[in-house]
Amino acid sequence: xxxxxxxxxxxxxxxxxxxxxxxxxxxxxxxxxxxxxxxxxxxxxxxxxxxxxxxxxxxxxxxxxxxxxxxxxxxxxxxxxxxxxxxxxxxxxxxxxxxxxxxxxxxxxxxxxxxxxxxxxxxxxxxxxxxxxxxxxxxxxxxxxxxxxxxxxxxxxxxxxxxxxxxxxxxxxxxxxxxxxxxxxxxxxxxxxxxxxxxxxxxxxxxxxxxxxxxxxxxxxxxxxxxxxxxxxxxxxxxxxxxxxxxxxxxxxxxxxxxxxxxxxxxxxxxxxxxxxxxxxxxxxxxxxxxxxxxxxxxxxxxxxxxxxxxxxxxxxxxxxxxxxxxxxxxxxxxxxxxxxxxxxxxxxxxxxxxxxxxxxxxxxxxxxxxxxxxxxxxxxxxxxxxxxxxxxxxxxxxxxxxxxxxxxxxxxxxxxxxxxxxxxxxxxxxxxxxxxxxxxxxxxxxxxxxxxxxxxxxxxxxxxxxxxxxxxxxxxxxxxxxxxxxxxxxxxxxxxxxxxxxxxxxxxxxxxxxxxxxxxxxxxxxxxxxxxxxxxxxxxxxxxxxxxxxxxxxxxxxxxxxxxxxxx
Length: 569
Description:
Elements: H1 4-10, H2 13-19, H3 22-32, E1 37-41, E2 45-50, E3 55-59, E4 65-67, H4 76-87, H5 118-125, H6 127-138, E5 144-147, E6 151-155, E7 160-164, E8 174-175, H7 184-197, H8 216-229, H9 238-252, H10 255-272, H11 280-298, H12 303-306, E9 314-331, E10 336-345, E11 350-359, H13 363-374, H14 386-389, E12 393-402, E13 414-419, E14 433-434, E15 452-457, E16 461-462, E17 466-468, E18 473-479, E19 485-491, H15 497-509, E20 517-525, E21 528-538, E22 541-544, H16 555-562
Helix pairs in contact: 3-4, 5-6, 6-7, 8-11, 9-10, 10-11, 15-16
């Protein structure tokens, strides 16, 4: 165990501020300049006698002190004794044990910090703080580490330094952020372990759920009943039954099944009400997903791995860059509306999303709310509108990202503008810009058919599309330089009305193919690729389709839309 002498040589004013406050330290500095003090130090004890007869005794560690004055906590006399040592290094005498030769100062060892295990850190700090610190350590630049009389670990990106006195455990370390509970100490430990051993033997905690498998046969039976009976002959309250199963799945720990049954219940309710918003594709996809999950669990697959998560886990990153590539508005049958911005992160080499959402009573109210969202200026202390936010390049400090690549609006995240707008020809966007449409399949995961991915397409030409009055979808073909064809799909809604007008008008005018690039949300739906336009680019200018398009008020544009329904303008 390091001697008291080793620890006294390592203390500085930052240590004194960690055990006292600035006012007490200033008072001690003033009185020390006008007071005589006698110090006697051995390997385990410091004894200080002030001119007024007050005595201070420190044993084994600087934090273990007593004073003859009436104070119950740290007092100015203790701070004066320690400050005397800080200001006069010669006050701590050397001994023969300090080095190979008398008078030579030996450096203390901090190897004991390498003995921490993952289990011990999780037990002491909890999974959330542990994961946050480890995520930052894994995704940040190497820190600056100095091992001398004390160990200092300076994290460059966050400008925070953590210091250890000889023999100090993690909880006794000093952090310049001055917060009582922070992730910096843990992050510093991870940096030190990687520095000393060349690797981190730690991993993020498992988030597998504890599940009750007794719900599985009942869920399978319900899906089979829907297909056996058929939609037309289903009892009128079957949507309520799906909602009840959603609650049961929540209690059983199956978050994925809870969400799927909830969606099925909403779709069946629309069908029972003969509402035109009913989507047979959505219902079929959810029923198929429920059947796949239940069949896999019944067949012996890990139930915990298939259960999903009830709450998204957000992990922190010290600093990242993001490049805005567009934003789109949306309205869900669940009664929520919002706008979602898409960013490409060169550091993580994948797109990230950031959304504003709010529950509303109707689609008309949703339109008003979305218009407010476009002008919202609250994200990351940037003081620019959401519309502008989705078009520029920024650096984010202390960003938080969920396990499904969503950025958090945490107040601790600070943003700074790098350039506006995002440069389309930037080499860093190369991973998501496609001139050859046949390469798009590489964006899809073979394991998950329901995730959305984002890309930027450069079409060589476009053709006039077709509006399906049954599904109320407009499909516009676009072609790459090799004549590969994809179809942009816009579903009619009040929110998408201007987008639909614009796409149809664009095809009518036959805009030169090199003047436009399109940012797309791509998702696999019932064995097809559904491609929805999000933003058009004119040079390096991003045009958010849901925001930047004027309403179709002139007769010519109205006529384009009217012909979809065989009605007069």
